[in-house]
């Protein structure tokens, strides 16, 4: 029988503890039907490996879960249909949606939707840290890495929210995901209750899942969610822990989730695995040999021939993907591609609401959450691509810290309408894509 080992790091930061013995994991071992066989919380890698060995389990498929805040969902509107053309055009299609250089990002391709291809973007060094963390376990081989909110059981609802300790994991029907502090549920309710500028008012269906103890502990925040007439809440009390819930959901609907293990982080194994280990060395040796021969026969001529050949290949790929375009030449094809995709992005309505909210929420948590700042109302203008947040803090410096943190992420952030009162300072933070 096949088994999957779902693992997530309790500290949520793969670089927080350099010593592997200090890293603690929550884990769930499930069989093909989704039934839990073994599980644990706050265990070391060694303890989990020992448990697998005691049960004579080997080559278990390990599925690593990473925080949703580490991964951004983008859409790539690419007219090409062949996989290799899509992957070649992918960086140009999403670079305007990213706050950092696309060359420093790892891009994982998902399925096609009415908005284009779904793309998960994560900082390359961060992905490398997660991949190292989950790879090379005794008794388990890395099969996939997912952003954890993407595994929630959405069903037929517009949103799925899952209480996970003091956090809420969220997934929308459009595929957007994020996590936030539980105390921000009232703000989320207020935001979801406001219809988009291009839509008529309608009810938003929300599936709210939590264990009995979690629902009781956060009852006040949950009641704020239920008290909004425009939100149709289906509250589900369960005895299933969040990690097991996500594992069972993925086993039932795993085709809809983007696996981050692609490209240089691919986890595919098989009969050619030994060759794949040695293939980079063989390629390097072959390149070295050819380079040495090239020195003897004339480097200048050789490199000119190589450049001409690569230019011809690039133009052939471009014309296969865009047969109607006759403007492109080897000298301007990159500029034309960037211009086309930038125009497509601008016509799609600017920076999306959820990425702005996700980034603002992440920086809010880094500054101490409700202990340092309090979010009031939220307003989003799709036409301007701006998110406006009413803030209250003990002093102006707290607001300024949040603005600076957002600016360091490549966003445009401004504070206005500042009023000093006896109990603190309030103001309005405007965030856009920069």
TrEMBL record:
Q: What is its main location?
A: membrane
**Keyword terms, alphabetized:** Cell inner membrane, Cell membrane, Membrane, Protein transport, Transmembrane, Transmembrane helix, Transport
Q: Name one GO biological process term.
A: protein secretion by the type II secretion system
What CDD domains does the record point to? ASKHA_T2SSL_N
GspL periplasmic domain: which residues? 272-431
Report the residue ranges that make up the GspL cytoplasmic actin-ATPase-like domain in this protein. Answer: 47-266
Q: Record's family?
A: Belongs to the GSP L family.
Q: What is this protein called?
A: Type II secretion system protein L
What organism is recorded for this protein? Tamilnaduibacter salinus
Q: Gene encoding this chain?
A: gspL
């Amino acid at each position: 029988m096949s088994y999957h080992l779902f693992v997530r790091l309790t500290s949520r930061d793969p670089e927080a503890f350099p010593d592997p013995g200090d890293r603690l994991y929550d884990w769930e071992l499930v069989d093909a039907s989704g039934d839990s066989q073994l599980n644990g919380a706050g265990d070391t890698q060694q303890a989990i490996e020992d448990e697998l060995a005691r049960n004579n389990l080997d080559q278990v498929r390990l599925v690593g879960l990473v925080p949703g805040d580490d991964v951004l969902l983008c859409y790539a509107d690419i007219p090409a249909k062949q996989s290799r053309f899509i992957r070649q055009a992918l960086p140009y299609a999403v670079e305007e949606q990213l706050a950092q250089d696309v060359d420093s990002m790892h891009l994982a391709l998902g399925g096609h939707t009415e908005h284009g291809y779904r793309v998960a973007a994560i900082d390359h060094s961060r992905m490398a840290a997660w991949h190292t963390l989950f790879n090379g376990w005794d008794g388990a081989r890395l099969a996939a890495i997912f952003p954890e909110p993407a595994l929630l059981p959405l069903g037929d609802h517009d949103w799925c929210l899952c209480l996970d300790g003091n956090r809420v994991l969220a997934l929308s029907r459009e595929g957007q995901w994020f996590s936030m502090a539980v105390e921000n549920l009232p703000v989320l309710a207020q935001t979801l209750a406001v219809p988009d500028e291009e839509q008529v008012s309608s009810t938003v269906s929300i599936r709210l899942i939590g264990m009995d103890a979690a629902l009781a502990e956060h009852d006040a925040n949950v009641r704020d969610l239920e008290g909004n007439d425009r939100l149709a809440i289906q509250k589900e009390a369960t005895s299933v822990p969040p990690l097991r819930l996500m594992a069972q959901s993925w086993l039932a609907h795993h085709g809809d989730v983007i696996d981050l293990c692609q490209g240089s982080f691919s986890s595919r194994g098989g009969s050619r695995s030994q060759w794949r280990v040695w293939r980079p060395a063989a390629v390097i040796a072959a390149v070295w040999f050819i380079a040495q021969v090239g020195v003897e026969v004339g480097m200048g001529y050789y490199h000119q021939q190589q450049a001409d050949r690569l230019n011809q290949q690039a133009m052939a790929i471009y014309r296969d993907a865009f047969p109607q375009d006759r403007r492109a030449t080897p000298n301007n094809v990159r500029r034309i591609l960037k211009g086309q995709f930038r125009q497509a992005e601008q016509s799609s309505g600017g920076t999306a609401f959820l990425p702005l909210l996700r980034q603002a929420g992440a920086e809010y948590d880094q500054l101490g959450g409700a202990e340092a700042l309090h979010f009031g109302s939220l307003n989003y203008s799709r036409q301007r691509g701006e998110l406006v947040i009413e803030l209250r803090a003990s002093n102006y410096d707290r607001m300024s810290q949040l603005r600076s943190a957002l600016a360091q992420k490549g966003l445009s952030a401004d504070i206005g309408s500042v009023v000093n009162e006896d109990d603190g300072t309030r103001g309005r933070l405007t965030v856009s894509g920069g």
